[in-house]
Amino acid sequence: MKTFATAIFASLIFVTNTGLCEDKSGFWKQHTIDASEKALGKLGADGVRLADANGDGLMDVATGWENGDAIRVCLNPGTEKARELWPGVTVGRVAGAEDAVFADLDGDGQLDVVSCCEGKTKAIFAHWAPAKADDYLKSESWKTTEFPGAKKAKQAWMFCLPFDVNRDGAMDLIVGSKGGGAAVSWLRNPGKETARDLSTWKLVPICKAGWIMSIVETDLDGDGQADIVFSDRKGNRTGVFWLKTTAKAPFFENEVLLGASGEEAMFLDVVDLNDDGRLDIAVAIRKDVIGYLYQPEAGAENGNWKRTSQAAGVPQDLFGGSKAVRVADINLDGMLNMVVTCEGADKKLSGAFWSTFYDGVLAGELAYHNISGPEGVKYDRMELIDLDGDGDLDLMTCEERSNLGVFWYENPTR
Hints:
The structure is a single chain. The chain is mainly β. Helices cover about 5% and strands about 40% of the residues. The chain is built from two helices and 28 strands. It has helices at about 10-20, 150-155, and strands at about 30-35, 45-50, 60-65, 70-75, 90-95, 95-105, 110-115, 125-130, 145, 155-160, 175-180, 185-190, 200-210, 210-220, 225-230, 240-245, 255-260, 265-270, 280-285, 290-295, 305-310, 320-330, 335-345, 350-355, 370, 385, 395-400, 405-410. It has a four-stranded antiparallel β-sheet with strand order 1-28-27-26, with no helix packed on it. A four-stranded antiparallel β-sheet has the order 2-3-4-5, with no helix packed on it.
């Protein structure tokens, strides 16, 4: 994979000749996965999290509907039917969901769902999958229970990462919150024998926080052991942080600030930006910045990561404020691009676009290609995934304010 820097001459010609523009072929075609419906609690879809829930090799999606109360799972029907509504099930009804993610909590081989809630609820719930795979799409076969330890902490829970912290084979949860008493914490799984008794799960604070956005599992330093990177957008110390794991208690070293200090760091992506074999980080920074943090040659633990930004920022006369970023080769030209979803995309502003990846200074302007058009206001976390099987990456996301639901945009490259 070439980055922009490795093909700078050819790319500069494209950028300076094209200028700031829409994709003249039109916006990407939108396909609804799960539609809003007030009577079913499906309002304000907030997030998309992927896993293969039914073992067919296809990525399924879990979503919490924050302005309703539905926690939903939709099963990927395959490439031929991906443009239709996906088969779905409401696995629970809880208010104020900010996140919903798949996790096999009791080790029975069936993927359960965990939801994190803010607002008045301030709780974390386990939605237990039925024992029989044939019952997975039957709402009445699911059971919802609440984690007492999380409720007792009285925190507004924002994000959850399934992660086996102590390497005992039982899936733990790394959870992040916002507001008073916010933290990144470890919900410790007691083991499959008692996992369904949520009173036996222990909440262990790892570090203080202000408003957690992303929590990502990644082997940042390349030592063969998965670590955690997270973004914090509010409070006394904001930015992008690294939690290195250890083999013995307390299982985490002190968090290391990697960059974007004092900035409002939103959703992030971990990717090798400069083709040097080391993982770097792209992060959306409110309101109009896409920041890049480059891992130093001395290693991730150095903490002195080079910080740059996408040239010219996010044009606020065309798009909303930056919410999430992913970096990949979108148009199959062998070079990296950035894909951005936005919030505050009011009136004629658009909520999703892709652009040439370039963090230097240009004499001209970058080309920005409009994906969504003006429909929608508050887009959220996204996934880049080939849903129609044509070899290019499509964009899956959701929209909260205009109730566009859960959907995907079809990449027109192929």
